[in-house]
Amino acid sequence: xELKILSPGPTKAGSLLPDARxxxxxxxxLDDFSAEEIxxxxxxxxxxxxxxxxxxxxxxxxxxxxxxxxxxxxSTRTRVSFELAAKxxxxxxxxxxxxxxxxxKGESLVDTVLTLQALGADFVVIRHPQSGAPYLVAxxxxxxxxxxxxxxxxxxxxxxxxxxxxxxxxxxVVGLKVVIVGDILHSRVARSNVWGxxxxxxxxxxxxxxxxxxxxMVSAELWPPLTVEYDLGRALEGAHVVMPLRLxxxxxxxxxxxxxxEYIRLYQVNxxxxxxxxxxxxxxxxxxxxxxxEISSDVAHGSRSLIEKQVTNGVAVRMALLYLLSGGxxxx
Length: 332
What we know:
Shape: globular
CATH topology of the largest domain: Rossmann fold
Order of helices and strands: EHEHEHEHEHEHEHEHEHHHEHHE
CATH superfamily of the largest domain: Aspartate/ornithine carbamoyltransferase
CATH architecture of the largest domain: 3-Layer(aba) Sandwich
Largest sheet: 5 strands, parallel
Number of domains: 2
Strand content: 15-25%
Distance between the termini: 7 Å
CATH class of the largest domain: Alpha Beta
Number of strands: 11
Structural class: alpha/beta
Oligomer: single chain
C-alpha cells in the first residue's frame, strides 16, 4: 500500500474525496456526507486495517501532528481507539478530561479549545454531554474537529465503523435489512447510523417501546426513508443485522418504561428471537453492553456476534478519518 500525503486542504468544509476542489475540515455527523464519500472513507479504512495487521503497525503519515482527546464524558472504547489510531499514524496524542482541566474553574468550552489550539492541536476529538457542542467548537478553531459523541445527537465515527464492519462481513450494505432495537430516543449512535445506512442503500428498521422512539423519526418528516416497528418479532423477520442499544435504568425512573423486566420480556435480543432473522444474520452493539437486559449473554458472545470486530475496526476507521482530514489520499 502506498500512502501519499498531500498538503492540507483549504479551511472550509467540503468532501473527503481526493478529486474535490475543497476538503472536509471536520467530521460532525453523517447527514452531510455523500454515499461516495462514505465509501471512500470505508475503502481507506480497509487499507488502514492492512497496516494494523503488519508486524509493526505504524506509519509516519501524521508525524509532527498533534491530536487532543477532549472528553467531557467518560469513555473507554472511543477515547482509546482514537489514541491508538493517531499513534499508529505517527501523531502525538494528548488526553484531556473535564475533571482535570480548567473547566472545573469555570473556563468555557470555546476558551478551552482555543487554548488547545494555541498549544499546537491539529485535531480536536470532542465528546460532550450537550448536543451541538462540536459544532460550536468547529466555528471557533482552525484545527479539525471530530465529533466523538454529543448528547443525544450524533456519533459519526461509531456509525462509520458499524458500516465498515457490515460491509466487511457481507461484502455490501445495499439491500441489507438492519434492525436497531431499544432506546432510540436517547441514542446518538442510532441517529448517525440512520444517515449512513440509508445513504448506502440499507433498509433500516427502528424498533422499541413507543416512549423510546423520537416522534420526528416516527413521522419520518425530517429523516431518510425508514420503518418503525413496535413488535420485535415482526421487526426481526428476515433481518441481516440486529443492533440492540444500551438501556439505561434511568429510563424506568423517568417513567418511560414500566419496568426493566418488562423491557427484557418484550425487547431483549436473545437466541429465540434471533431465530426469526435471516439465517446469516449477525448481531452488533455500540457498547457498553448491559448483558441480560437488551442482549442475552449467549447472543453477545455467540457465533453471530460481530461486537469485538466492531471495536477492532474502530481503530482502522478513525485512522482513515485522521489521514483523510490531513489531506492524505490512498493510491492503488
